[in-house]
Amino acid sequence: MEQQEHPVPAPASASRVPWQCGWWGPTDPDQHPAVQAIREHFPEAFVEATTFRDEMTIRIQREALRNVVAFLRENPALRYNHLTDITAVDMLYLREAPRFDVVVQLYSIPRRQRLRIKCGVEDGETVPSLVPIFAGANWLEREVFDMFGIVFEGHPDLRRILLPEDWDEGHPLRKDYPLRGYRDYVQPGYESPVPRIHGPLRRL
Amino acid sequence: MLDFSQPTPVVISEERQLSETRRELVLNMGPQHPSTHGVLRVRLTLEGEVVIACDPVIGYLHRGVEKLGETHRYAQVVPWTDRTDYVAAPLNNLGYVLAVEKLCGLEVPERAQYWRMIMAELSRIASHLVWLGTHALDIGALSVSLYTFRDRELILDIFEKFCGARLTTNMMEIGGFSREIPPDLPDMVRDFIRYFPSAIRQYEDLLTENPIWLARTKGIGVIEPEVAINYGLTGACLRGSGVNYDVRKANPYLLYDRVEFDVPLGTHGDVYDRYLVRVEEMRQAIRIIEQCLEQVPTDGPLMAHDSPYVIPPHKNVMRTAEDMQRHFIWVIKGFSPPKGEVYHAIEHSKGEQGYYLVSDGSPIPYRMRIRSPDFVNLQSLPYMAQGAMLADVVALIGTIDIVLGSVDR
């Protein structure tokens, strides 16, 4: 088997602190090439760029998600060519609107850098699907649809993936979905020894 | 009530007449099928013996670990991570605790980091052994599984010595290890790595040049490098296609930048190359463990102390009032990391496993997302199975290295 060298030498970790190794690019948003490029090419879609523990998060408008991700992949200076993850966060307890954040984690294999793209989605709104750009987005978007009920526009096969196809009791990772579900799946006549908690999740 | 007087009709397949000579058959493989490694159901559309469409149906083992993660305190989630990928539990623990430590801004003593690397690499070997045994068993080489499970026992013995559990280890804690390393553990690990290369030679004698194995694996399930990247594959599925991406090399966590190891790469991207990559990864894991055992300090702290995020050492709890109070608060109320969000990826035995944590400043995670490698890798099954023979689907499921507990979470 051939041994290939990595195209870029590993970033010199001056600090031993695990999260200060430059794997998310410069921590100053103004210095970050992806932030600069999005600001330049999508000025109306760019909302903000924040860092926490050196992780760069760029928030954009949901309509531009597909175009921005395609741009980040095709741009020869950025080359975010690996779609690591698509997920969502239900922001019900944290802010008024919009309800959800769709979170896209990107990785650049040649440049060894990560990037996080976020966009806010209100309940009932759609997000452009990333399947035309990354084939791997297929199941990840199906899972987000299954767990949160966010519809991805342009997805070729948007149906439930982890729950049964005929599941009719909502989307379990929403914060207003009770932890133990809405009803018992036990045989008639059986009484559960544990009382059922209805309503929103109990916060500690 | 069921009526047992009438025979129950059993529907195995649907048939469709396409033309005079062509017929389409829809066949359900699984969820209870010995070669699906759990409860995977694959809905195959066949024409004769050739697969023309394939739809993996998952979710039979869905337990809602992400939802449970949003209702437990940070330290209580660690045992749940064992149960996602249950053949490599220490690696799951590692990914989660590293994400929490990043969220809290916690630095772990060097000695604990070396022992984490040793346990992670042992766990990688154990996971690859289960994979190799079952994969070979699926294709028809029964004897390999007997050898691999024999050697996996030795690793499970080390885990048992270290933490008392063999399968669901719950080994790593936030901040390091809370128990001292047993004094004879380094020798156990040394004995294992002295013995294990000869065991790898045994597996390779049985398989690598075996004509039946070559006929069943060479040229089957080819994934081109561009396709592999496009599908978001990681781990041996990506490296088998020749793409050099290993999180340990590309973005080293723990102390992986202090040890030397090679990243094996395939050239053709078929089932055989992925087999070679994983076998070579076991050898490299042995190299890493050897260097860790040389470099690890023999004594020193195993836990980051004087931090509100870690549990106080047990022997201090009964002696000093401060530690007793801290222990009480830690157990009853948990700890509250700062508000923020982190994503931390590690190289799991199956690929890149990432934990995405969102904290709202309360003692329980606001959102815990597990990016499990085999969930993403399993997406490539329809691509590989298109045009393959029915008998090869078994090899294709095996080569992805799935554990349904991790796919369904």
Please report the distance between the alpha carbons of the first and last residues of chain A.
Answer: 54 Å
Q: Please tell me the overall pLDDT of chain A.
A: 82
User: What low-confidence regions of chain B span 5 or more consecutive residues with pLDDT below 50?
Assistant: none
If you average the pLDDT of chain B, what whole number results?
A: 88
Uncertain runs of chain A: 1-14
Morphology call of chain A: elongated
Oligomeric state of the chains in view: heterodimer
Distance between the termini of chain B: 34 Å
Rg over CA atoms of chain A: 20 Å
Query: Would you list the SSEs of chain B in sequence order as H and E?
Result: EEEEHHHHHHHHHHHHHEEEHHHH
Overview of this protein structure:
The complex is a heterodimer of chains A (204) and B (409). In chain A, 15% of the residues lie in helices and 23% in strands. Chain A has helices at residues 33-41, 65-74, 137-148, and strands at residues 46-52, 55-60, 82-90, 100-108, 113-121, 126-128, 151-153. Chain A has a five-stranded mixed sheet. Chain A has a two-stranded parallel ribbon with strand order 6-7. In chain A, β1 (46-52) and β2 form a beta hairpin. Chain A is elongated and about 65 Å long. The model of chain A is unreliable at 1-14 (pLDDT under 50). Chain B is of the alpha+beta class and 409 residues long. Chain B contains 17 helices and seven strands. Chain B has helices spanning 65-69, 78-82, 89-104, 110-139, 142-163, 185-207, 211-217, 225-230, 236-239, 247-250, 271-295, 314-317, 321-332, 373-377, 380-385, 390-400, 404-408, and strands spanning 13-17, 23-29, 41-47, 50-57, 340-348, 351-359, 367-371. In chain B, strands 1-2-3-4 form a four-stranded antiparallel sheet. Chain B has a three-stranded antiparallel sheet with strand order 5-6-7. In chain B, α4 (110-139) runs antiparallel to α5 and α5 runs antiparallel to α6. Chain B is globular. The model of chain B has no long low-confidence stretch (mean pLDDT 88). At the A-B interface, β3 and α3 of A face α1, α3, α8, α11 and β5 of B.
